[in-house]
Amino acid sequence: MNSEFSKILKKKRYEMGISQETLAKKLFVTKAAVSNWENGNRIPDTDMVIKIAKCLDIDISVLMSDGNETPNVIIVDDDRIILKGSIPIIKSVIPNASVIGFTHPSKAIEYAKNNKVALAFLDIELGNTSGLELCSTLLEINPRTNVVFVTAYSNYSLDAWGTRAVGFILKPITAESVSEMVKRLRYPLKGVIE
Q: What is the pTM for the complete model shown?
């Protein structure tokens, strides 16, 4: 979870002199929800983050700052050759990113639970697991993860749009396709080559 979000939320609440209970009432949530956010056990969805920012009179970008200039980018594909070829392409577009590839969705989920993933490139066919399911899990862990589906089959695009993914790229990944997609992310990344 985003420990910086937790710290900023708690600090700002203290500065304003309001209790967790008072903040919870203003946001129409339980005190336990506020406690979970401040302890880093959960992160609210985007709509709630906007409400929190308004309630605490703080800019949303400050509230969501992770204090880290290096975005974590993952790519999940069950084909090692695809991973080996895609990682350098992604790094060429986002040179300051930490780019990690996974062949097993469970490893990607484990990583996402311990690291804030800014951008995830997901194959749709991942053996026994669907990239669509993985998308849902990653967004439960961090609603601010930008998810882009990468597949060789354009007929999956309609299924992909049924998720909260931000885009869809046909294989093979190219610097141009990654660059165009990164320009349209819901949550922009720092260090992208224009």
A: 0.65
